[in-house]
Design a protein that fits this description.
The protein is 39% helix and 20% strand. It has 495 residues and is an alpha/beta fold. The chain has 2 domains: 283 residues, Aldehyde Dehydrogenase, Chain A, domain 1, CATH 3.40.605; 190 residues, Aldehyde Dehydrogenase, Chain A, domain 2 (3-Layer(aba) Sandwich).
Length: 495
Amino acid sequence: MTLDQAQINGLRALPVAPQKLLIDGEWSIGEGGEADVLSPIDGSRLTTLAAASANDVARACRGARAAYDDGRWARLAPAARKKVLHKIADRIDAEAVALTVLGVRDNGTEFNMALKAEAGSAAGTFRYYAEAIDKLYGEIAPTSPDILGLIHREPVGVVGAIVPWNFPLMIGAWKIAPALAAGNSVVLKPAETASLSLLRLAEICLECGVPPGVFNVVTGPGRVTGEALALSHDVDVLVFTGSGATGRRLLNYAAQSNLKRVYLELGGKSPNIIFADAPDLRQAAKVSAAGIFRNSGQVCVAGSRLLIERSVHDVFVDLLSEEAQKLKVGDPLALDSHIGAINSEAQLQGNLGFIEDAKTEGNTIALGGQRILEETGGYYMAPTIVTDVRPENRLFREEVFGPVLAVSAFDDEAQALRLANATEFGLAAGVWTNNLSRAHRMVAGIRAGVVHVNTYGGADNTVPLGGVKQSGNGHDKSLHAFDKYHDLKTAWIQL
């Protein structure tokens, strides 16, 4: 695809209509009023977002339940659902640039990354699960000759999905596509600061043949909209990507209501480990810089803790600083920007709070550490490298979700492994070494859902994404995602 800055500029100038809720196939205003949508690019007002009340959420959940119960989607042949999902993927591809510009205006991700990671990824995800629908089989149990044991896969019913603001279209597709493919109805709750691209996706789904009531979207603050969704007795499964604090509340709400299953993809404080025998330190520095600074560090699997073998520590920090300084922070809709905006003023201030704490705790700010481009009205932060970070420091233990890298030194493999596992999180990790045996030992020893070796990031739909410890449970992506959206039913037949 040839990208044209003039085309992007034209799309960014288009007005965005006030947004509504999608409930049971109808677009409606929310009972909770409306809220301004501010663009992180320059702080300007983009449009308004409908705020759903608890009653609005209840109507959406009832509509989803009715749509599931009457079988308008769930009882379609898998091949019929497959055709609809392929149409959705084709439409996403056809509107990729417009969808990307809309999303970037809303959440601030740099355009070049967003085009691939948002629209491109979402289209690929819908295609992946469309192709998987008619290739999933039930099972026949190995029983005695007079018994036939059958294991059926059935949709769970109504899926509530709550998605974050960093990659709304990508993460939304990870949940929506397999849930729909399995035959479920869905009620989606996007983040307040990144709803626009998902609301357009909802329009696309209706236009491509998803029946009314099967896919619903309710927007608004989590304390109202998200809570009502989690408490609903019409929701059978709740899937969520976001913070640990919110994840705990959702588990509590499930216990208070109908004991719905809750699958959580939570935070990370992922170690990226550089051994002295890394195959190419310059390449490791380049990839590691992208692994923490892309999307302004607002990536759940970001390599936010850099553990460097002491013998190459200073050399590698210098290489990393060089690579970081090559990255241009600026207008995320400018094609020459490498890093875009922080999602919101509140997130930016939280990031800067970590820097103040790092100074207080005796860490060294080796690069960055400050707000930049404030004159634009937007929310931007310089790529930041903090060295001399110790396990007891806040920056070692807590997720920043910003362009802030904590650097620590280690002396041997055993210490590297101890440091890697010395947080409550276990989402992702990276290991750079030329020693194959060491690589396998580290993969086995690191407690994380994804371990990269001599790379960082880029895993596609063929493999699952999920964490351990307080990074959550359940998996997005791959065929394993269907585990969340299918029930197993046994038929025990006496012959």
